[in-house]
């Protein structure tokens, strides 16, 4: 996301490697995967995301970036949609169609 012009300013100065690690662990935990998140990581995640209330166009850019990364790794369209719906719901956004 840091290279995306709609998101770069919002992510500047954040610990991106840590944000990626924690975000992927959260996704894994929410989907029954092997990576789990402890309370300390949840607290760190909350701190990292503090003040990051995404505007609608920023959130759309986040979702587009995620979908593009998944497609780049040859993840199927059905799975991309499932992940997008899960992330949208977790963030309190209505699923995009």
Structure description:
There is one protein chain. Helix content is about 65%, strand content about 0%. The longest helix has 17 residues, at about 55-70. The protein has about 100 residues and is mostly helical. It has five helices and no strands. Helix 4 (about 55-70) packs antiparallel against helix 5.
In short:
The protein is mostly helical and 97 residues long. It contains five helices and no strands. The longest helix is centred in the middle third of the chain and has 17 residues, at 56-72.
Distance between the termini: 21 Å
User: Could you say which overall geometry the principal axes of the C-alpha atoms support?
Assistant: globular
Structural class: mainly alpha
Number of distinct beta strands: 0
H/E element sequence: HHHHH
> What's the total helix number?
5
State which percent range the strand residues make up.
Answer: under 5%
Over all CA atoms, what is the radius of gyration?
13 Å
Helix content: 55-70%
Average pLDDT, all residues: 77
Q: Which regions contain 5 or more consecutive residues with pLDDT less than 50?
A: none
Largest sheet: none
Features:
5 helices, 0% strand
What's the layout of helices and strands?
Blueprint: H1 8-11, H2 16-30, H3 39-49, H4 56-72, H5 77-90
């Amino acid at each position: 996301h840091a290279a995306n012009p709609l998101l770069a300013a919002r992510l500047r100065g954040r610990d991106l490697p840590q944000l990626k690690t924690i975000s992927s662990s959260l996704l894994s935990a929410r989907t029954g995967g092997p990576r789990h998140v402890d309370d300390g990581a949840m607290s760190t995640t909350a701190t990292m995301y503090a003040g990051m209330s995404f505007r609608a166009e920023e959130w759309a850019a986040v979702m587009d970036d995620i979908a593009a990364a998944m497609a780049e790794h040859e993840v199927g369209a059905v799975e991309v949609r499932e992940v997008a719906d899960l992330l949208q719901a977790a963030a309190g956004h209505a699923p995009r169609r």
